[in-house]
From TrEMBL:
Residues 704-724 are annotated as: Disordered. Pfam families: Dicty_CTDC. This is Tenascin-X. It comes from Corallococcus aberystwythensis. It comes from the Bacteria. Gene3D superfamilies: Immunoglobulins. InterPro entries: ECM-enzyme_regulator, Ig-like_fold, S_mold_repeat.
Amino acid sequence: MFRARARWWLLVLLVLVGGCRCGDDPNLGGASASFRPQDEVVDFGRVLEGTQVRRSLTLVATGRAGVQVEAVTDAPFFVVVSQIVVGGSGTGTVDILFSASNTPVEGELVLTAGRTTAKVKLTGVGVRPLPCLPQGECTDSRFDLESGQCIESPLEDGASCIPSSRCQENGRCQAGACVGQPRTCNDDNPCTVDSCSPTQGCVRADVVCPASSNPCKVGVCDRNEGCQEVDVADFSPCGAVSCKAAQVCFSGTCRTVTPPDGFVCAPATPCQDEGKCSAGECMRPDAGDLESDFSAELGGAPVAEDGGPVLLVDDGTVYVSVCGEDAGCWLAAYTEKGGLLRYESPYVDGGARTLLAASDAGVVVLAPEALEAYAPRGVGELRWRTSLALSEAALDGGSPEGVPGTGAGRVALTKEGDVLTYVTWSGDAGTEPLRSRLVVLSADAGVPLAMGPEEDGGGAARLAVDDARGAYLYTPWDGRLAFTDRAPPVEPNTDGGPAALENGGPASLSLEALGSGVPGGAPSLALASGRLLVGTRAFVDTDGGVLGELDWDAGTRTLSPLAEPVLMSPGGTVGHALALACDHTDGTPCVGAELRTVLRSFSSDDGHFLSEVDVLPAPLLPGTFHEAALLEQNTVGVLADAVLPNGQRQAWLEWIAFGNKVNQCSLKGRVEVAGAVFAGDLLHVALRRDGVWFLESYPVGGRAESRGWPQRNAGPAGTRRAVP
């Protein structure tokens, strides 16, 4: 009995053991079905930002049975196919993508089959490429992923390239240099002046016909006939106009007539309608305040050196140098129409800078012992900074020992934007006599292109540039008027730049003295149509011949000429200058409230006195002259103010023509004027109202002249350049 039961339990045990199926797949009998990854880490290495890289991981079957593996991971890693079949005793492959950003990342790949789970580490480095810009016209620059650096390589000869000068086109590489063909800018129109600027390309300007000596004629250009003189409109003023007698044009001739009632005796202004004659008197409606086109808060106080520009205007932009109490100093740029802020560019050290000149090549400012140029557009970044010591570029190998300086009137721009500057210094920490030198700096980099010789003396010299001929320099301490054509010696130069000395330094610049000079004059110089007004003392032909000294003794006032502004009419026939004056006739000096500011006009033929006008707006109140400019129709625009009995100041825009104050408009409120500039048909003013500094613009009622020497510092951009 016992034995029978033992056999029965043994039989049950054998059945159970025989029926057991080991492994993960019950359909494979006794075959084993599992896997393992061949690698524990998949490293994608360095991958460019924004791109994807694919890597493969091998899965190895650990038994004779096949197995299906599920693959899962997270971004920025991705599995191409999430289910992978690994054959028995074989291998399978899982493909993984890495989508790179710009940082190192780690992830995990999770592999699962039944009860088996394996994890694989994923790593990769996303790399943001550097902006690789070629340093040369005929080089290629690419980002090397492994080193993380830009690698340059030369382009093959014949490869197309873009010449650095816009006066060349169809550039091809030759021995590492981009050589182009000269660009043709001639439009076959005799009424345009066609030229090429290396920075702008083709530049066209209307031909400016010579100004007629007859005030009733005007020069106009005809495409077929060229410049011709035509009659101005009848009744145009050609001299003083009043309701007793008026000089007006009829059929090209200036005539004096007795105006009838209703005759326009004073033109309309932006604040007042025109005046008309009535019973021999000029009757005008009451004037209102001049309304501004815009008013923009500056955020600080405007900066300028004594006699230098507070505002500059070029290509539709108004520039002002500003200092805040705690915010340092910066260059601000506003749109000329509307006063929208283009940019505020902080100066590198936060210190003050004074404006000198502006062009499409840059805004030139005076920094401590250096000149700087800021981009006129974009964010106004610093383009270049050049030390006034210029020690590395000195022709004689020497360098100034004292603090070098330049400033307003001693900086001028060529039409290409190159900077002429007259630099002065003293040796042995200021104890030695002053020395000076004329230097030409490139528009694009501020590097010295040419230099004049070291000269004895220094101080407030004046430069003037004639686009057609060259530059003029007046040094008041020795009365010299000198000329340079700015042209270095002509030598072959493969890069198209100016010729240089053999040692690679700047070329030599010569100065030729003109005539007998003008000794003892003020530091002032104006230029128009081949005539110079020098030192507020004499008119001089540009070939050096003296036309005549200014007649400052005419009249019944004691006069002390101001250095600037001196204004020259576009035709060079009339010069205007200002002076402090009083009614003393015994030669005693004028003091305090006795002083007035007058505008006096002179004929450039012989310097004789034409007219004199008090420019202060209130006859019995003291005041200050701020700015003057030539406007259309032989008119001078003046901005001046008066000190009111309560000590506050009020400013007026005035119009003066043929020795008469034609009209005036007051600026709204009580204001303190820091500076102003006439540009186009607007007057831009930096002023303080109720303790806050503003930039404001006002309509002028006409256009400022762009030819000749139209205002202080030569023009709206302060370029000290006379446009032919």
